[in-house]
């Protein structure tokens, strides 16, 4: 499958046991999770919705959405990450959540037009053909459903901050986590969405303040950004 990079899967599988350690290399995901969760819930209230989290990893976002009342399916190709996600949900007593180890395309073939909301966060920059993931996300949505994406912009500033700064200077994440050439401009992602019958409704930036070590959202999309889209199919 063109959307599968075995090296990327292996890379995250090797550190899967540390997904829920807030002081590990996954600390940035824990730190931005409230921002992602609030962004999704503001645009598409989660309570009572059927949600698919594509590239769920160890379940940080999936579990948070379930706690807000959604019935959540988490999807990932890393079996160790899925095992960690299942174990954490069980220990936390979160019952309205299910995890599947499956490719997005295969899952879409079996569950087309099933979900009210599809999320795909910090995943597109790790696959060879991200536009195919976008297309599969649209296929999984009910008519009028909402899809949310987050990824990294591709420009000089994102190279300086997300590669040099985050990986080599601040040591926020392990070196080699990202490949700058796979970063995605908002215009590119919006184009793939249009081709897949997803209408872009909003684009918002996520920013890191090194001095306060905090994250916030804002208009600037130079580095990290969130995109809210809706399914145009009826």
For the termini, the CA-CA separation is 29 Å
H/E topology pattern: HHEHEHEHEHEHHEEE
Q: Please give the count of helices.
A: 8
What class would the helix/strand composition place it in?
alpha/beta
Please name the CATH architecture: 3-Layer(aba) Sandwich
Principal-axis shape equals globular
Number of domain modules? 1
Radius of gyration: 16 Å
Which superfamily, in CATH terms, is the homologous superfamily? Vaccinia Virus protein VP39
Described by strand count, sense and barrel closure, the largest sheet is: 8 strands, mixed
**What is the level 1 CATH name?**
Alpha Beta
* pLDDT < 50 stretches: none
What's the CATH topology label? Rossmann fold
For the largest sheet, list the strands in their spatial order.
3-2-1-4-5-8-6-7
The overall pLDDT, averaged over residues, is 92
Helix content: 25-40%
How many strands in all? 8
Could you tell me the strand content as a percent range?
Answer: 25-35%
Describe this structure in words.
There is one protein chain. The chain has one domain: Vaccinia Virus protein VP39 (Rossmann fold, 3-Layer(aba) Sandwich), CATH 3.40.50.150. Strands 3-2-1-4-5-8-6-7 form an eight-stranded mixed beta sheet. 38% of the residues lie in helices and 26% in strands. It is built from eight helices and eight strands; from the N terminus they run H-H-E-H-E-H-E-H-E-H-E-H-H-E-E-E. The model has no long low-confidence stretch (mean pLDDT 92). It is an alpha/beta fold.
Characteristics:
eight-stranded mixed sheet; alpha/beta; 38% helix; 234 residues; 8 helices; Rossmann fold
């Amino acid at each position: 499958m063109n959307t599968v990079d075995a090296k990327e899967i292996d890379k995250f599988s090797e550190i899967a046991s540390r997904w829920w350690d807030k002081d590990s290399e996954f600390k940035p995901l824990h730190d931005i999770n409230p921002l992602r969760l609030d962004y999704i819930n503001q645009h598409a209230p989660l309570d009572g919705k059927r949600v698919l989290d594509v590239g769920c990893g160890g379940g940080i976002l999936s579990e948070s959405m379930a706690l807000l009342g959604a019935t959540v399916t988490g999807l990932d190709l890393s079996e160790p990450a899925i095992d960690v996600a299942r174990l954490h949900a069980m220990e936390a007593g979160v019952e309205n959540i299910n995890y599947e180890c499956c490719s997005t395309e295969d899952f879409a073939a079996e569950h087309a037009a099933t979900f009210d909301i599809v999320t795909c966060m910090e995943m597109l920059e790790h696959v060879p053909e991200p536009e195919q993931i976008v297309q599969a996300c649209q296929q999984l949505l009910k008519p009028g459903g909402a899809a949310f994406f987050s990824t990294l912009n591709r420009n000089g500033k994102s190279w300086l901050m997300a590669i040099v700064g985050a990986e080599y200077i601040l040591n926020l994440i392990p070196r080699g986590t990202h490949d700058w050439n796979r970063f995605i401009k908002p215009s590119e992602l919006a184009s793939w969405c249009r081709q897949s019958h997803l209408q872009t409704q909003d684009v918002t930036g996520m920013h890191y303040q090194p001095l306060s070590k905090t994250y916030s959202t804002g208009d600037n999309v130079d580095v990290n950004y969130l995109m809210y889209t809706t399914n145009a199919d009826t």
